[in-house]
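Preliminary data (for renewal application), S-adenosyl-L-homocysteine complex.
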Amino acid sequence: MAGKVWFVGAGPGDPDLITVKGRKLLEQAGAILYAGSLVDQAATLFAPDDCEIRDSKDMTLEEMTAWLVDQTSRHGTVVRLQTGDPGLYGALIEMTRPLTAAGIEWSVVPGVSSAFASAAAAGETLTLPEVTQTVILTRVAGRTPMPEGEDLEALAAHRTTLCIFLSITLLHEVQRALRAAGWAEDAPIVVVQKASWPGEEKIIRGTLADIKKKCQEQKVGAQAMIIASPTLGAADWETLARSKLYDPSFSHRFRRSSVSE
Ligand code: SAH
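Predicted structure:
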């Protein structure tokens, strides 16, 4: 019987940030196809000795699916290991469709996205009561164009948290879009490179005006998350609207209000 392909989110880089389920699958995998340099450590750390491990860096999509299909004829568990969460900029559906067409079963195991690892590294929150309750995960157009209505300028007009992937080399374009949407020159921006990578993480804090210069000075030009948000720096604000979740006058499913209404 043909094996099954598991698309596993490896998390942002620190091998400890893969899920328990993902790790168990790696431990029983007969073959692992991992996505470039970002996740090789998890693959080699947790895979059995006789596991066939291959980097997909130089493979086309067709070669990757052919490799996965071939491996399922020999192994019960085949893992495609992807950075962060497989559902974000991971070409997931492009890979699952040929598997379905070949009659091969597949499933997805979610992972910790670099958006969340970057916020965690910087000690920032992506939402804050009465400031913003919305997070937009996006990118600026590179080789992949942005669908209509999704250009950064239009999204930034919402004044919500923006987690901008795949765009560190286009920081000038991020600046242009935020300015065009009316963000102030002193709006805070944080860039996190290699979030969660032991010994390699860099956190650059700046403003719309100076973030590009700071990133250049620190030589941050790849593998970085840009977070622009009205919540940034809230740890140091003098006043803060209180989260309803922990407000003593607010009852919810797990906790009764201590204040009578
Ligand atoms: N599926 C991944 C995203 C893949 S796209 C996820 O959920 O995180 C690749 C982009 O993700 C990079 O250009 C960068 O913007 C971001 N990225 C991936 N790993 C990162 C890390 N450890 N630190 C900061 N950004 C990272």
